[in-house]
Write a structure and sequence with these properties.
Layout lengths: L7 E2 L4 E9 L5 E5 L6 E6 L3 E6 L13 E5 L4 E6 L30 E2 L7 H9 L6 H6 L15 H12 L21 H11 L2 E3 L8 E8 L3 E10 L4 E3 L8 E6 L1
Parallel strand pairs: 8-12
Antiparallel strand pairs: 1-7, 2-3, 2-6, 3-4, 4-7, 5-6, 9-13, 10-11, 10-13, 11-12
Length: 256
């Protein structure tokens, strides 16, 4: 799977095989080492001596464009299971769903919380059924402030928002990243949802502006809460669908 090193610092050159992905941290490379993408390693890009295509070995790496990295000796490799609540990378736990977020500081300028599914939910759901990619409005129409599996964590922003995405038709999320432990399999980590937003987006912004349609948003102040927050915004109605709103954090807006 990983090849020569399980975790820690090596005293000899190390070979890592898998599928490249985007790390949450600048200067790092993430490589998925299991076909279900439940296991990955991360290492500093500066530690890479050689990068090349790798032959797929059954049971060791996903079949889609596997690669191989030769790392220098003394390279530090972090091996993580997305289901491991005790994993720590550079002092941060990826399992932020187990840490309650801070209380938002709400101002009158902020959008208001939706008090239920978006208006016209039947129409929005019907529209989604006719489209290759469901609309973000249909996600709002399926917001329930809960998970189909009935479970909950200390932080449920990604957990409950991914439930709305999956119910709207984004079923691929049921095999994406760290997921809840019920058969519902809802993604539970905001930083991982942010990467999925990036993969879907046709428009992006860092500025909140009314009257610009629906946006999937990642909000972050790493000095306060490293895991960040995800939320859905209807900027026309100026209301959000999510477990909270952090208007004083940085805003990453994604639209498709």
């Amino acid at each position: 799977m990983v090849a020569d090193q399980q975790h820690g610092t090596s005293t000899t050159p190390v070979t890592v095989r898998g599928v490249a992905a985007t790390s949450d941290r600048p200067g790092y490379r993430r490589v998925y080492t299991s076909s279900d993408r439940n296991e990955y390693v991360e290492f500093r890009q500066d530690d890479v001596q050689e990068e090349r295509a790798a032959e797929h070995v059954e049971g060791t790496a996903p079949a889609d464009a596997p690669q191989q990295w030769q790392l220098q000796s003394r390279a530090t490799i972090y091996q993580v299971s997305v289901h491991d609540p005790d994993a720590v990378i550079d002092g941060h736990s990826p399992a932020m769903e187990r840490m309650a977020p801070p209380t938002p500081r709400v101002t009158e300028a902020d959008p208001r919380a939706a008090d239920g599914p978006a208006d016209g939910s039947a129409a929005a759901t019907s529209e989604a059924a006719q489209r290759t990619v469901p609309s973000l409005a249909s996600v709002g129409a399926n917001w329930r402030d809960r998970c189909e599996g009935g479970d909950a964590f200390a932080n449920n922003c990604a957990h409950y928002l991914s439930d709305a995405f999956i119910t709207a038709g984004y079923t691929e999320l049921q095999s994406y990243g760290a997921r809840c432990y019920t058969p519902a399999k809802r993604p539970i980590r905001a930083r991982e949802m942010r990467e999925w937003f990036k993969s879907m987006a046709t428009s992006t912004s860092t500025v909140l502006q009314q009257g610009t349609g629906w946006w999937a948003i990642f909000q972050l102040d790493a000095s306060v809460y490293w895991g960040g927050h995800v939320v859905l915004l209807d900027s026309d109605a100026w209301q959000y669908y999510g477990t909270g709103w952090y208007g004083d954090w940085s805003q990453e807006l994604y639209q498709w």
